[in-house]
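Researcher: I've got a protein sequence and the SMILES for flavin-adenine dinucleotide. Could you write out the 3D structure of the bound complex as structure tokens? I'd like something to compare against our soaking experiments later this week.
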Amino acid sequence: MRLARPDLVVDLGRIPGLAGISERDGDLVFGAMTTKATVERSELVRTRQPLLHAATRLIGHPQIRSRGTVGGSMAHADPAAEYPAVALATDGWMRARSRRGERTIRAADFFVGALSTALAEDELLVEVGIPALKPGTGWAFTELPRRHGDFAMAGTAVTVDLDPEGCVADARIIVFGVESAPARVSSAEAMLRGERPGAAVYSRAAGAVCDAIRNPLDDIHASGDYRRHLAGVLTERGLVDGVGRAVPQAVGS
Ligand SMILES: Cc1cc2nc3c(=O)[nH]c(=O)nc-3n(C[C@H](O)[C@H](O)[C@H](O)COP(=O)(O)OP(=O)(O)OC[C@H]3O[C@@H](n4cnc5c(N)ncnc54)[C@H](O)[C@@H]3O)c2cc1C
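Model: Sure. Here is the predicted complex with flavin-adenine dinucleotide in place.
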């Protein structure tokens, strides 16, 4: 993109130990160089983290997924990239390493703006942790690109927990591709808590999502107003699908 003119380019591809998927303390842990194709083919991801699996299948095309890496997506931090949205929706984390040592950065603190992250210049992203989805939690990953495989003009990642009565115990709504970084919309989540799911509630939450968008991207692909509108529509669709997949259960189970 010619945004940077590096004097030196380091190939991480042959560094041992930077690729692979494992499970640790309920989290799926991805070496930074794990390709998206590996994530897509992983039975562990498909069964334990279906939100991530669904998002992976929407990234570009098979050729892109076989070269692009989990760590590359997080470090690159494109506003419309799917993985940062999943990391926010699931309370994921990034493990960074430098000569000074290692540190863990929560996804909520990692994505600071368009193509900007909390990584320092001397830090290498070595691992990405995505907590497995709790059994019974509903989920949905929706987006709208101009053509299949393009970057999305807007998208949402939604998770929903229902209490034993079928009311919303908890919900998470992440909007991406709309502003310079993916964002969690707590005001919309609060409108859902304690409510019985239904069209009117979804519509109110979608309205809160639209209201929360202050500086939508406005470019050749879509105007800011259209992106805001899409964010609302995709929130409603995400809630319908997310609630449809949720299983009512006792809080904390
Ligand atoms: C045609 C096309 C369509 C695409 N469509 C989509 C899409 O729909 N959705 C989507 O999310 N992505 C999309 N992508 C992006 C793609 O999925 C890759 O994530 C992206 O190209 C980065 O590739 P990479 O993993 O090889 O990282 P690189 O290109 O090697 O690196 C990207 C940036 O991250 C830094 N970086 C990489 N790894 C690390 C690390 N471990 N530690 C610190 N910094 C690091 C690099 O220095 C660089 O600044 C598309 C790309 C193309 C070319």
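Model: The radius of gyration is 18 Å. The chain has two domains: 21-131, 138-245.
Researcher: Great, I'll pass this along to the crystallography team.
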